[in-house]
């Protein structure tokens, strides 16, 4: 396990990205908590998020896909 996936900055906040959200390079899409450090994960491409592949609070690993993006 590398870290924990979070869709929003806090439980009361709206998700950074949802299905249908448009993203560009450097759009923050989620947070990965690793060793008590919150790392903002940015989109690497421009497009529309089709599907979120990970549930909030789920452990994630290196190379795991988090979102499906249609360019």
Describe this structure in words.
The protein has strands spanning 3-6, 22-23, 28-34, 37-42, 47-52, 59-60, 67-70. The protein has 71 residues and is an all-beta fold. It has a single domain (3-70), classed as RNA polymerase II/Efflux pump adaptor protein, barrel-sandwich hybrid domain (OB fold (Dihydrolipoamide Acetyltransferase, E2P), Beta Barrel), CATH 2.40.50. Strands 4-3-1-6 form a four-stranded antiparallel sheet, with no helix packed on it. Strands 2-5-7 form a three-stranded antiparallel sheet, with no helix packed on it. Strand 3 (28-34) and strand 4 form a beta hairpin. It is globular and about 30 Å long. The chain starts with a strand and ends with a strand. The relative contact order is 0.33. The mean pLDDT is 95.
């Amino acid at each position: 396990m590398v870290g924990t996936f979070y869709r929003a900055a806090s439980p009361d906040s709206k998700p950074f990205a949802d299905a249908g959200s448009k993203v560009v390079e450097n759009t923050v899409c989620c947070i990965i908590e690793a060793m008590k450090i919150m790392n903002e994960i940015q989109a690497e491409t421009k497009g529309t998020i089709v599907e979120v592949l990970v549930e909030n609070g789920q452990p994630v690993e290196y190379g795991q896909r988090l979102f499906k993006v249609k360019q």
